């Protein structure tokens, strides 16, 4: 069996994918036309050609511009339905989707419009492919604590449909501690908590996410390597890291995949998973992230199977739900 087929056949969970980051330019243009929304580029080809990023912010500027094409409940359904089709082809049996409600409510799209469309696609994926899923509401860290609390207020009537909260957007200058009270309230409400940390930001942000926000997983976390004590702690506590190798190269965290620290972190005993982050922008869905990383870092099939197993173990499903996959 070739490597690609081997990877696709591994049952896996995707734990770090921004649903807005799965918006392929073709669908972006179709939705923009349907909704009469102007996009910054004239064509699908011009849009793809612009996906040449120098850092996280240069990507986020385009990502937020593209998200403007999403207006109606059906748009959010179409977006997530397209993701689930690709995820199914990649052997994803469970997906925990990040969504950024503030990106949409700021433009006048109702919180319920976003949630209803995504949730309908989750139900549809369960029925069509047997994929289970969860929704994780991400707060945009470049916005204020007060804006985060206002978003939580909008989410309150729907908490049964939201499984956890996350923290994303521009990392530098927006430390996790800025959201200490918001995350404390979310945890009190019984929500799971995760946060992006140590993608572009320093290792201290990972420590803060763990100690101040009390998150259960770290999204990215690759800069932990600059702090030996932190690496040792992450290994000892088996804190899952949701690593996104192709994203890290596209956003210049590492110059080339061959230089990624995934293998070193794995050998240090960390509980690592492989994910796609924003696959429409970064050149590959989850299986391509596994395959390209395996080729670049000479990961064995046994190591890839361990990584897929880590993703199932690190997911927020119950042990009973998880059992048939392990
Ligand atoms: N939002 C979407 N993708 C992101 C990433 N890689 N880092 C921070 N925020 C994001
Ligand atoms: Zn991310």
From TrEMBL:
Binds 1 zinc ion per subunit. Residues 11-326 form the Adenosine deaminase domain. Substrate binds at residue 278. One of its GO terms (molecular function) is adenine deaminase activity. Pfam families: A_deaminase (PF00962). Its cofactor is Zn(2+). Its EC number is 3.5.4.2. It is an enzyme of class 3 (hydrolase). Zn(2+) binds at residues 16, 18, 196, 277. NCBIfam families: aden_deam, PRK09358.1-6. This is Adenine deaminase.
